[in-house]
Amino acid sequence: MLFQLLGPLEVQATIKPGKPATVLAALLLDRGRWVGVDSLIDSTWHDRPAPVSAAGNLKSHICGLRRVLPPPASGDRIESRQGAYRIRVAPDEVDVDLADLQAAEAGRAFAVGEPERAAELLADGLALWRGRPFEGLQTPAAAVEGARLARLHTRMREDLAEAYHRLGRYWDAITVLHGLLDEDPLREHAWAKLIRLLTDTGRRNEALTTYGRARSIIVRELGVEPGAVLLSAHHDALRGCADLHSIAG
């Protein structure tokens, strides 16, 4: 992978830390699109007023990047036109693009009844994460993309748990969901998946206890009752317990 953005910037080339790395990250954030010089200056000197020499310094950083970055199949890696620069990358050169692709492919695998393929794609995609995406790039655009990728990461973990569930890998599914809820205990969809998983595997009392824990956290932290998804999972667990009591009677 030539460019790794799902964590601290890593590149298969020797990039000087500091401003050159920040310029590269800003270009990669808008890969394939023209980025104005003013925008790049704002990204590079985000923590202080840009010096009078900022435009010249930026040009020097671009020249340095051009010298060390491997060229694409054709043309220049970093293109320029009046007042703007653009970096050219292939989809398989950036971990963000690969993660998006694997999440989409996993969705298609689910749709055609291939949970094993979905699990493989999701596990490979999740392995690309090394930390907070675009770490060190402090711009509004980076914050927006970082939030999108955080949502993608969460959804992929939930989908991986679902794939494991369908494959009968119940312990693996429970482990994924517990890890997700340890990080975000207000994630109602994850609680609902965990409760349904426990219910489906005959652990209905544990499912009800889990609902009680989820409800307590949500009420305490948000001051509201659980939503429809979590309530539905709770009702299914209650119905399962009622069915067992009916059979026993």
Automatic annotation (TrEMBL):
InterPro entries for this protein: AfsR-DnrI-RedD_regulator, BTAD, OmpR/PhoB-type_DNA-bd, Sig_transdc_resp-reg_C-effctor, TPR-like_helical_dom_sf, WH-like_DNA-bd_sf
Annotated GO MF terms: DNA binding
GO biological process: phosphorelay signal transduction system; regulation of DNA-templated transcription
Occurrences of domain Bacterial transcriptional activator (ranges): 94-238
Protein name: DNA-binding SARP family transcriptional activator
Keyword DNA-binding: yes
Domain OmpR/PhoB-type: residue ranges: 12-87
Domain of life: Bacteria
Similarity comment: family membership: Belongs to the AfsR/DnrI/RedD regulatory family.
Sorted UniProt keywords: DNA-binding, Transcription, Transcription regulation
